Amino acid sequence: MSLTLEFHDSEIRDVVADGTGLRVRLAAASVRDADGRRGWMPSVQLVLADATATGDLRHAFGKITEGRLSHGGQALARLALPIALDGAVKLALRLANGTALDVRARALAASVDPGARFTEDLSC
């Protein structure tokens, strides 16, 4: 199934520094399927290599109100899942709790746990 991640309305479970990398785990990712239907997917993870972050990682959890990603200077409105991006990556996330997280990295890999299932959003 072809899915794209939309940062807005996704929910961060946690952000963990892992050596020189950073792991952003989403409890509920806002995604669209190949037909454009909006829905939710648990267990989406972003791994940023050689990452430097500004912002308080301890408070980087909860609903994302705004998210911007650029790769090689090009803004990406959506992120295909799964994907691996090599080259300069910038990720800026603003959370409902007021936390701002800005990350620069050498690469980004986005993955979904194999058992995770897409659930269509049926709200009006």
* Poorly predicted runs: none
**Secondary-structure element series:** EEEEEEEEEEE
In spatial order, strands of the major sheet run 1-2-4-10-9-6
Assembly category: single chain
- From the alpha carbons, calculate the radius of gyration and give it in angstroms: 14 Å
Characterize the largest beta sheet: strand count, sense, and whether it forms a barrel: 6 strands, antiparallel, barrel
Distance between the termini: 24 Å
Helix content: under 10%
Judging from the principal axes of the Cα atoms, what is the shape?
globular
Overall tally of domains:
1
Structural class computed from helices and strand pairing: mainly beta
Number of helices: 0
Description:
The protein is mainly beta and 124 residues long. The protein has one domain. It is built from no helices and eleven strands. Strands 1-2-4-10-9-6 form a six-stranded antiparallel beta barrel.
Explain the layout of strands and helices.
Blueprint: E1 3-18, E2 21-33, E3 38-41, E4 44-49, E5 52-54, E6 62-71, E7 74-76, E8 79-81, E9 83-95, E10 100-112, E11 119-120
Antiparallel strand pairs: 1-2, 1-6, 1-8, 2-3, 2-4, 3-11, 4-10, 5-10, 6-7, 6-9, 9-10
